[in-house]
């Protein structure tokens, strides 16, 4: 599998409007703060970022990142890495209920008239 560059992101680095992938890094180059991280592991699609959690302190410290598709618990060795990817586009015009059902199958009052009649009671 080809090697992919990944990034060790902090909570402040995530954007709720962007999508991410996850993998544990397998190799590093350079020295801190110019260190780069690479992985040969398959990337796991996570979707958009939702929230972060942290717990404990010292050796008992831990954390997790919650995304649309998965929740990633950060590993003790600090090898959790992420990569920003384009979000998939939802295609086409969405069909509404009115478009799917024929007029004959709808029974009773229209939605607008139902609301008016409920207010009078």
Can you characterise this structure?
It is a single chain. The protein is mostly beta strands. The protein has one domain. The protein has two helices and eight strands, in the order E-E-E-E-E-E-E-E-H-H. The chain has helices at 97-100, 111-120; strands at residues 4-6, 19-24, 27-29, 36-39, 44-55, 62-67, 71-73, 80-85. The model has no long low-confidence stretch (mean pLDDT 82).
How would you sum up this structure in a few lines?
By secondary structure, the protein is mainly β. Helices cover 12% and strands 36% of the residues. The protein has one domain.
Query: Unreliable segments (pLDDT under 50, ≥5 consecutive)?
Result: none
User: Portion of residues in helices?
Assistant: 10-25%
- Rg from Cα: 24 Å
What structural category do the secondary elements indicate? mainly beta
The average pLDDT is 82
Strand order of the largest sheet: 7-6-5-2-8
Number of domains: 1
Number of helices: 2
Q: What characterizes the major β-sheet? A: 5 strands, antiparallel
> How many strand segments?
8
Shape: globular
Give the topology string: H per helix, E per strand. Answer: EEEEEEEEHH
**Span between termini:** 68 Å
Strand content: 35-45%
């Amino acid at each position: 599998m080809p090697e992919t560059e990944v990034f060790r992101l902090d909570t402040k680095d995530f954007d709720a409007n962007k999508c991410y992938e996850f993998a544990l890094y397998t190799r590093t180059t350079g020295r801190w703060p110019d260190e780069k991280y690479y992985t040969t592991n398959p990337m796991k699609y996570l979707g958009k970022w939702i929230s972060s959690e942290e717990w404990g302190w010292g050796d008992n410290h831990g954390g997790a990142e919650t995304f649309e598709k998965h929740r990633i618990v950060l590993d003790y060795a600090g090898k959790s890495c992420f990569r920003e990817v384009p979000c998939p586009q939802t295609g086409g015009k969405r069909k509404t209920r009115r478009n799917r059902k024929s007029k004959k199958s709808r029974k009773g009052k229209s939605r607008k008239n139902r609301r008016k009649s409920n207010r009078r009671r």
